[in-house]
Design a protein that fits this description.
- By secondary structure, this protein is mostly helical.
- About 65% of the residues lie in helices and about 0% in strands.
- Helix 1 runs antiparallel to helix 6 and helix 7 runs parallel beside helix 13.
- The protein is globular.
- The N terminus and C terminus are likely disordered.
Amino acid sequence: MQKTFAAPARLSVDHYENFPVASWLCPAHLRAPIVAIYRFARTADDLADEGVATAEQRLADLAQYRNDLMLAAKGKSTSPRWQPIFANLQWAMQEFALPLNLLEDLLDAFVQDVVKTRDYIGYANRSELLDYCRRSANPIGRLLLHLYGLQDRQALASSDAICTALQLINFWQDLSRDIPNGRFYLPAEDCAIHQLDHQDLLNLRSSPAACRLIESMVVWSRGLMNQGLPLVHQIPGRAGWELRLVVQGGLRILEKIERQDFDSLSMRPVITLADMPVMVWRALRMRNRWAHQAQPL
């Protein structure tokens, strides 16, 4: 007999995020699976880089976490350690047929985080960093599209562009936190163009060259976000409005980095309640501009 699971009664999001996660804008019937996915990914991310565990312990924890994922996918009981996480995810996997390969991709990225941090290995170029984002960020967007019932090629490409842009924006936002902890996402090739290396950036002191480097990262990220903008008009209803706010949250961080003269080595910009009216207004303008362009001649 196939095992059945009840929908989770209450789930919460307990980390700072630049954008809403399963907010009231999200369709009510999708909030539980979306937060189940979020908490699965958030917990694995914390295993990879939060606390004082050794790299070896982190890798062992992630291996156990992956084993629980495989058990959940088979409808079996998981270990007690993360039982609430996997109970909710198991329900979502059964109820919505979530693609297992996308969840595995996320774990691959978190393992890579540990290895890169342990050996203090950065990314050689933008292509390497994009490959990381393909596994660390893009699966989230594709899982959401799966829930929304959108699987056409244009939607997937736009989702990947937005998710990669959001991941990169988070990197440039968190330079002052990541670099001291061995997480170095500025591509070595771009650092060399600006005559910088890891050692130049370890002290987190801003310089004209460092600001030009970060400016180039901001331009790159904004270009990727713009590539994905058609998706906000493809997703209908409240989910589409939530995506508009997600996009505006990312763009707002880029704007704040620009306003501080691209010095995010010593100053970390964040989204506050004061930013919400601007983001909402810009989200509305995205809709109005599209509606105007869509009117027949």
